[in-house]
Write a structure and sequence with these properties.
- It contains four helices and ten strands.
- It is α+β, with helices and mostly antiparallel strands and 229 residues long.
- The protein has a single domain (7-227), classed as 3-Layer(aba) Sandwich (Protein Transport Mog1p, Chain A), CATH 3.40.1000.
- The strands form two sheets. Strands 3, 4, 5, 6, 7, 8, 9 and 10 form an eight-stranded antiparallel beta sheet that branches.
- β9 and β10 (159-166) form a beta hairpin.
- α2 crosses α4.
């Protein structure tokens, strides 16, 4: 369902995490001295993505449409931003948005678990009310990153927002630190989006057979699955 292909960027940044942040490739730099980009609007302004402390948005990764969006975040120095960020864990975060069907419930922990099948769920939990799962896939998205990663999803202004966090094998971000980082991102994004635009109702979805509004209280797990494909 997702129209954004994040694999090339994940590969480039994954290699960067292994080789060292001082070797940031030119394709990740908008200019010789990149500025710290921590806010970007997605999905026609319905979602104002706000980066957690020490992490920046890669400007070259941002994709927008009127009702969807994608962005990739990394520790700021991995994107060539000057400063001391070593107190933060090395990690890559993808953010993907898609319209939420009218009547669909907010994502639950059970929805997340169902959307990850057949991958192995290592851990499931809530952090500041955000549902999170840590899962293991057969192989990592690129060399240098662990096949284990965190996923989460939440509803915001008529959008479903999917989060995924990838990290090197030895990074504490594969443990509880990763859950904390995603919870911080979600909370900051909710606050920023509430300030930028009042809460919007979910967009109406019609069934192809009848053209009538879709049923209420529908599970969003199919849409969640599409956010990570």
């Amino acid at each position: 369902m997702s129209t954004w292909n994040s694999k090339p960027l994940l590969v480039a940044l994954g290699l960067l995490l292994l080789t060292g942040c001082d070797d940031a490739p030119a394709l990740l730099k908008a200019q010789d001295s990149p500025q710290q980009m921590t806010l970007v609007d997605l999905a026609g302004g319905d979602v104002l993505l706000s980066a957690p402390r020490g992490y920046c948005i890669d400007p070259s990764s941002v994709r927008r449409s009127t009702n969807a969006g994608f962005a990739l975040l990394a520790r700021c120095d991995a994107l060539g931003v000057k400063g001391f960020f070593a107190a933060q864990e090395l990690a890559l975060i993808t953010v993907t948005t898609a319209p939420q069907d009218t009547g669909a419930t907010a994502p639950t922990l059970d929805d997340l678990i169902a959307s990850a099948s057949p991958s192995k769920i290592i851990e499931s939990k809530h952090a500041d009310g955000l549902p999170l799962i840590r899962l293991a896939t057969e192989q990592s998205v690129t060399d240098g990153l662990s096949p284990e990663h965190w996923r989460s999803a939440f509803a915001l202004n008529g959008q479903l927002v999917g989060l995924a966090l990838y990290a090197p094998e030895t990074s504490p971000a594969l443990g509880s630190d990763g859950a904390r980082i995603l919870a911080e991102l979600a909370n900051l994004t909710r606050r920023a989006s509430a300030t930028a635009r009042p809460t919007q109702p979910a967009k109406t979805a019609e069934t192809p057979e009848t053209g009538k509004p879709a049923e209420a209280n529908k599970s969003p797990f199919k849409v969640i699955t599409g956010l990570f494909e």
